[in-house]
């Protein structure tokens, strides 16, 4: 039994929905009733069956629709996928990682067969069956990073490690929370995080960098990050901010439940074996308020988190304009009772 | 939204003589004074292996000051664009050990550094000193066009016309600050335009 | 957030003497699977169980990263060292089951380089064996200058010459052949990266000349694992775990801490990666710092020690472990 892939859209008529099973597996990011930055990095190991951590690279019911949305974004703006010339080897590393993990986790959908450097890749949901020579770019229709990330959910940043720092020298970024790969490519860890408020002062990035540069092969790590998005739009890029920005003015008490989405990023960090780089998959999960509040614990907790969020963070996450409406709507679902510890629903 | 100073904002230093035998200086306008100030600290014979490429600007000041340093090569260029072919050839033929010194406006420093990075020079090994105008090069994140000599906050994109917040976020690869639509959420909000980078 | 590496269960598949000082060891996985892919310049830490003593020494992987059926390392016999290399030479035979770490690379190629200029001295040739294989496979531009004492001690010189011909330049001490370093460093195209591996004296010489000739430090890469040195035995109190231990003459402080059942994180065991850095709570005596990680100020302060390579002489030492 495989996954039933939904037919849905992340633009125009926004037909994206989560099935009831997918609501329950949503990676709710708040383990307590408040939120502040922390170095919340932990080993990326397999989690419970039925959770988004059941496989280290998660494929879900939105896979096909997300890949179609990515193809639309790339057709409009090819600069969302870039790789500096020295990053091709890391691209092959990533291709190997994603093919291995997807084939391992979902054998009914993906098959990888290797005979030396002669590889055959079958991706049934997207109708792909390609045979190619590993390491020979001329045997694939795209560069190795672009080829495999057109077939993998989430954004991908590939970081080169040099001089004790990480350099964002390649990436496929079409579902980003308001940052531009085209602008940030080539920057080091501190530079591309420069616009994030509060965290630099807390020394968060210095400690995070120290951890990331020591990530070892075979021992990936992960963290969760979150923001909010109006409408289930994957492509909230700065490039198109003038197109999606006006959405933020459309939130009313009547449509909060349908329009406002919690957007959670499951970020993982992997050492790449041949290039000694690090890949940083940023997997985005969306859930609309109507779906989220079907879990009463999440409704109560989200109300408290959004209500008490420091102003700088609310501004950085772009919530300012509709926060009062959202908090008012959520408050009706918060009877003030205690929430149980941990992320999961009760 | 105020443009607070953030970490990708380039930090410029004060030129100081580096070890090695070959030194390439690129400067515009007031940047000449950074070179002459540095010359006072340089060891004897330092300029025997130096080339100075200078863009003096309309009032042609400081040319004599630089000539007096007696560099092995001295070249005057009317604009950065006119200097570019020569600079690319010089870097293409250069050897490890060449040190690069950039002085003057942010636009000049950024664009010269962009060429140097492509030639294989690591940005941390380049000496920079900012002198003169604070005017910025800005990339419009929406249409990707570069607007030169931006002095106001916000500023209009010279390509697509959107009104852009000039962020302190800076890309060495593009040699430009990032401009993001300031009134994207509600185009009827028109913030006042102020001189910010004289 | 443990930062140690995963272990690999391997079996010694071959032991090949290369010359009078160097022996090459081959490892395969016990389960018959492929070993993890690695990048040129990576090392593994080999666990040597010698009676009731365990030594863990890092060795560069020197096979081609394109072939992961087996790993190969080369060990130079050190007759006055702590016994790790002697154990490898005397006791490790084909068929022996051993444990090694996953590969870790603290000496990786800068793939932006327009040219890779490599300088090797003696057994420092080993990381370049893998790096040249990697670059040759990708059509990379490299040149290797290799100094050895005599032709017969020029470990793998013949192999390298055969593979890469004129890209390999050899210098023999006994024939009084010397690298014209200043000339070499002055004629490299812009965008060249320099890699040095060999004795400490050679590394320092190359780094000094490169800096004097205007090479920026970002373009100069070096690897020098300090082998832990034997020394006088000393006692240490581990304050956090409440243990007092003795460090033997032939044991490193890190090995003694591990033997007591305390496991600090580590990667290189050679004083370069910084993982096992340990705070000193109090001491009465003098430190013998052998690492390349702590600053001179740290060394003078008496507040920190790298237990993988550094020792202590004196009355008492209390560590935060």
From TrEMBL, chain A:
Pfam families in UniProt: HODM_asu-like
Protein name according to UniProt: DUF3445 domain-containing protein
Source species of the chain: Mesorhizobium jarvisii
From TrEMBL, chain B:
Dimethylamine monooxygenase subunit DmmA-like N-terminal domain residues: 5-126
One term of GO molecular function: 2 iron, 2 sulfur cluster binding
Keyword GTP-binding found: no
Domain Dimethylamine monooxygenase subunit DmmA-like C-terminal: 137-180
Keyword set includes Cytoplasm: no
One Pfam family matching this protein: DmmA-like_C
Keywords noted in UniProt: 2Fe-2S, Flavoprotein, Iron, Iron-sulfur, Metal-binding, Oxidoreductase
NCBIfam families with a match to the protein in the record: mono_DmmA_fam (NF041259)
Name listed for the protein in its UniProt record: Uncharacterized protein
Organism: Mesorhizobium jarvisii
TrEMBL record, chain C:
PROSITE patterns: 2FE2S_FER_1 (PS00197), 2FE2S_FER_2 (PS51085), FAD_FR (PS51384)
Cofactors: FMN
InterPro entries linked to this entry: 2Fe-2S_ferredoxin-like_sf, 2Fe-2S_ferredoxin-type, 2Fe2S_fd_BS, Beta-grasp_dom_sf, DmmA-like_N, FAD-bd_FR_type, FNR_nucleotide-bd, MRET
Protein keywords: 2Fe-2S, Flavoprotein, FMN, Iron, Iron-sulfur, Metal-binding, Oxidoreductase
The keyword Nucleotidyltransferase belongs to this UniProt entry's keyword annotation: no
Domain of life (superkingdom): Bacteria
Protein name: Oxidoreductase
Organism: Mesorhizobium jarvisii
């Amino acid at each position: 039994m495989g996954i039933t892939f939904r037919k849905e859209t992340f633009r125009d008529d926004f037909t994206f929905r989560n099935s009831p099973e997918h609501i329950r597996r949503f990676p709710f990011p708040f383990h307590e009733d408040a939120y502040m930055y922390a170095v919340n990095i932990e080993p990326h190991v397999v989690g419970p069956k039925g959770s988004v951590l059941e496989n280290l690279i998660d494929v879900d019911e939105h896979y096909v629709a997300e890949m179609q949305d990515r193809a639309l974004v790339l057709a409009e703006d090819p600069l969302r996928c870039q790789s500096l010339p020295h990053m091709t080897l890391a691209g092959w590393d990533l291709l190997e990682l994603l093919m291995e993990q997807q084939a391992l986790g979902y054998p009914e959908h993906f098959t990888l067969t290797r005979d030396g450097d002669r590889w055959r890749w079958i991706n049934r949901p997207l109708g792909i069956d390609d045979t190619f020579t590993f390491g020979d770019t001329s045997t694939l229709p795209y560069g190795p990073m672009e080829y495999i990330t057109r077939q993998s959910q989430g954004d991908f940043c590939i970081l080169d490690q040099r001089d004790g720092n990480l350099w964002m020298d390649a990436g496929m970024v079409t579902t980003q929370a308001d940052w531009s790969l085209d602008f940030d490519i080539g920057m080091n860890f501190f530079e591309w995080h420069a616009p994030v408020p509060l965290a630099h002062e807390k020394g968060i990035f210095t400690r995070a960098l120290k951890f990331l540069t020591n990530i070892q092969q075979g021992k990936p790590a992960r963290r969760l990050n979150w923001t909010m998005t109006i409408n289930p739009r994957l492509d909230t890029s700065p490039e198109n901010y003038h197109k999606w920005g006006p959405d933020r003015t459309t939130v009313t008490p009547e449509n909060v439940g349908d329009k406002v989405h919690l957007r959670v990023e499951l970020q993982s960090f992997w050492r790449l074996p041949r290039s000694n780089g690090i890949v940083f998959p940023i997997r985005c999960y969306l859930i609309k308020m109507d779906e989220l509040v079907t879990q009463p614990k999440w409704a109560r907790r989200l109300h408290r988190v959004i209500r008490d969020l420091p102003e700088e963070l609310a501004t950085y996450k772009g919530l300012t304009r509709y926060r009062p409406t959202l908090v008012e709507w959520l408050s009706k679902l918060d009877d003030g009772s205690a929430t149980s510890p941990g992320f999961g629903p009760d | 939204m105020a443009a607070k100073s953030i970490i990708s904002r380039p930090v410029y230093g004060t030129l100081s003589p580096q070890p090695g035998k070959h030194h390439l200086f690129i400067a515009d306008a007031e940047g000449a004074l950074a070179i002459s100030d540095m010359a006072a600290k340089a060891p004897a014979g330092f300029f025997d292996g130096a080339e100075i490429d200078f863009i003096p600007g309309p009032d042609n000041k400081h040319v004599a000051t630089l000539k007096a340093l007696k560099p092995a090569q001295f070249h005057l260029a009317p604009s950065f664009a006119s200097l570019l072919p020569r600079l690319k050839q010089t870097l293409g033929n250069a050897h490890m050990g060449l040190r690069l010194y950039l002085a003057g406006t942010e636009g000049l420093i950024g664009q010269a550094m962009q060429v140097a990075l492509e030639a294989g020079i690591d940005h941390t090994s380049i000496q920079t000193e900012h002198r003169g105008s604070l005017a910025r090069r800005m990339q419009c994140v929406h249409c990707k066009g570069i607007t030169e000599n931006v002095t106001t906050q916000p500023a209009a994109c010279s390509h697509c016309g959107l009104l852009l917040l000039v962020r302190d976020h800076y890309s060495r690869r593009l040699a430009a600050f990032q401009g993001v639509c300031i009134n994207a959420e509600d185009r009827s909000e028109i913030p006042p335009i102020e001189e910010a980078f004289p | 957030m443990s930062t140690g590496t995963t272990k690999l269960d391997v079996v010694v598949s071959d032991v090949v003497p290369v010359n009078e000082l160097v022996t090459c060891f081959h490892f395969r996985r016990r389960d018959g699977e492929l070993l993890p892919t690695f990048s040129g310049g990576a090392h593994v830490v080999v666990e040597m169980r010698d009676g009731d003593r365990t030594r863990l020494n890092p060795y560069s992987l020197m096979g081609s990263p394109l072939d992961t059926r087996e790993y190969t390392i080369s060990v130079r016999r050190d007759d006055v060292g702590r016994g790790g290399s002697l154990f490898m030479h005397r006791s490790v035979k084909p068929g022996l089951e051993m444990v090694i770490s996953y590969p870790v690379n603290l000496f990786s190629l800068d793939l932006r380089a327009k040219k890779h200029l490599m300088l090797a001295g003696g057994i420092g040739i080993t990381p370049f064996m893998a790096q040249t294989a990697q670059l040759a496979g990708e059509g990379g531009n490299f040149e290797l200058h290799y100094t050895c004492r005599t032709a017969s001690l020029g470990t793998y010189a013949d192999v390298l010459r055969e593979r890469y011909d004129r890209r390999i330049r050899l210098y023999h001490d006994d024939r009084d052949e010397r690298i014209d370093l200043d000339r070499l460093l002055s004629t490299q195209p812009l965008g060249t990266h320099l890699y040095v591996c060999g004795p400490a004296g050679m590394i320092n010489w190359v780094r000094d000349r490169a800096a004097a000739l205007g090479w920026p430090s970002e373009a100069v890469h070096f690897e020098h694992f300090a082998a832990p040195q034997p020394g006088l035995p000393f006692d240490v109190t581990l304050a956090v775990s409440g243990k007092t231990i003795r460090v033997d003459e032939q044991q490193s402080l890190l090995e003694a801490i591990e033997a007591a059942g305390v496991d600090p994180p580590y990667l290189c065991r050679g004083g370069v990666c910084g993982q096992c850095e340990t705070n000193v709570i109090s001491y009465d005596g003098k430190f013998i710092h052998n690492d390349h990680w702590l600053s001179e100020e740290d060394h003078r302060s008496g507040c920190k020690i790298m237990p993988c390579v550094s020792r202590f002489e004196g009355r008492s030492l209390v560590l935060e472990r």
